[in-house]
Design goal:
This is ATP synthase subunit a. Keywords: ATP synthesis, Cell membrane, CF(0), Hydrogen ion transport, Ion transport, Membrane, Signal, Transmembrane, Transmembrane helix, Transport. Residues 1-24 form the signal peptide. With 369 residues, the chain is an alpha+beta fold. The chain folds into two domains: 42-122, no CATH class; 125-244 and 251-357, no CATH class. The protein contains nine helices and nine strands. The chain has helices at residues 2-25, 30-38, 124-148, 159-180, 184-206, 220-236, 240-247, 261-302, 309-355, and strands spanning 43-49, 52-57, 59-64, 67-72, 86-87, 92-94, 106-110, 113-115, 118-119. A four-stranded antiparallel sheet has the order 5-6-7-8, with no helix packed on it. A hairpin with a 4-residue loop joins strand 5 (86-87) and strand 6. Helix 2 (30-38) crosses helix 8 (261-302) and helix 3 (124-148) crosses helix 4 (159-180). The longest helix has 47 residues, at 309-355. The termini are far apart.
């Protein structure tokens, strides 16, 4: 306990002095810190040592008017031109992040005009996607290998394999099988993939250094893919009774003819369900990252709140204690939210698929008195 207290005091002192040293050199652009983490980019900024940023440069793959080009993002100049753009080879530039059109995207300057080329570059989000996919494969294939080499009556596995077995069976039994019943094995591969990929992506997004730190589930493109796939599975596997309840539900005729009020509402609900999945996951994860970063940025703001150095130090030191405590709380809360959001997405997907498998209503037998 004594060593723990000393470590906490040293950490608090470090958090107190570090912002003071940074604020003496330059003002902190909070907007750039927040959007630099949330938005996608062509390089992976890690930290800054003195005046030298530590950056992982990623491959650029574009098809412009002069053909295909493959090169490293380091070939784009760090010095911006008069428009705030970063020029690069082959008349390509990375647009200013505050630009109205194509912000923070690669454009080609042709005849004084900006044209968006075909861009399939390995951006930060794509790189994080590959890393999370590899981690997910390892988390699944290692327990699968154990199952293949053991029998049912063998002792239960321990360690990581045992943890994954417990995790997988918990989601399968309590969520998928409880919702879909006998049809659970048919849809379990997709639903388990949804849960574990979202959970791994959420957890890796909390890790503040590579290979973590990517805001994958806070990117709308990722959540749209999961939502649209669930939408397609739900509607392409729906039964005839499911479609009958949409276009000709069992309601009074005046709600269906001449104005198809209820069919319109039911048809509209087909699209609102996956939309709710997409927005819920995207908004919760993006907001969590933004709040955690905002608490850290408050420290640097308070160290530059006035022209008086002593007042800055007092305000910054006091806010550092509060900010570090709130940041630690938010990080722990993010771990819980990571699990809850993955579980909610999987559970709602299972519910939507189950609702699409409506069976025909059978007449109840008459009771003989």
């Amino acid at each position: 306990m004594k060593h723990l207290k000393q470590f906490l005091l040293m950490a608090m002192l470090l958090f107190t002095l570090a912002p003071l040293q940074v604020s003496a050199k330059e003002n902190i652009d909070v907007k750039e810190i927040l959007w630099g983490h949330i938005k996608d980019s062509y390089e992976w900024h890690i930290t800054k040592v003195g005046d030298h940023p530590v950056v992982i440069h990623l491959p650029i793959i574009v098809k412009s008017s002069t053909g295909w080009h493959v090169f490293c993002s380091s070939e784009f100049s760090e010095e911006k031109d008069a428009n705030g753009d970063r020029p690069g080879p082959f008349n390509l530039v990375i647009k200013n992040a505050d630009a109205q059109a194509n912000p923070n995207k690669i454009v080609e300057k042709v005849g004084g005009q900006e044209v968006r080329p075909l861009d399939i570059s390995i951006t930060k989000t794509v790189c994080v996607l590959f890393i999370d996919a590899i981690i997910l494969l390892l988390c699944i294939l290692i327990p699968a290998r154990w199952c293949r080499n053991h029998k049912v009556d063998d002792p239960a596995p321990k360690g990581f394999v045992g943890l994954m077995h417990m995790f997988i069976m918990s989601v399968y039994t309590d969520v998928i099988e409880a919702t879909l019943g006998k049809e659970a094995p048919k849809y379990a591969p997709w639903l388990l993939t949804c849960f574990f990929f979202i959970f791994v992506a959420n957890i890796m997004g909390i890790v503040p250094f590579p290979p973590g730190g990517g805001n994958l589930t806070g990117n709308i493109a990722c959540t749209v893919f999961f939502g649209v796939t669930t939408f397609l599975i739900t509607n392409f596997t729906g039964t005839k009774e499911y479609w009958k309840e949409i276009f000709w539900p069992e309601v009074p005729t005046w709600l269906k003819v001449p104005v198809p009020l209820m069919p319109f509402i039911e048809l509209f609900g087909i699209f609102t369900k996956p939309l709710a999945l997409i927005i819920r996951l995207f908004a919760n994860m993006m907001a969590g990252h933004a709040i955690a970063l905002s608490f850290a940025a408050i420290i640097f703001i308070m160290f530059n709140i006035s022209e008086n150095a002593i007042a800055n130090y007092v305000a910054g030191t006091g806010m550092t204690i509060v900010s570090v405590a709130m940041s630690a709380f938010m990080m722990l809360l993010e771990v819980l939210v990571s699990y809850i959001q993955a579980l909610v997405f999987t559970m709602l997907s299972a519910v939507f698929i189950s609702l699409a498998h409506v069976k025909s209503h059978e007449a109840e037998p008459e009771v003989v008195k």
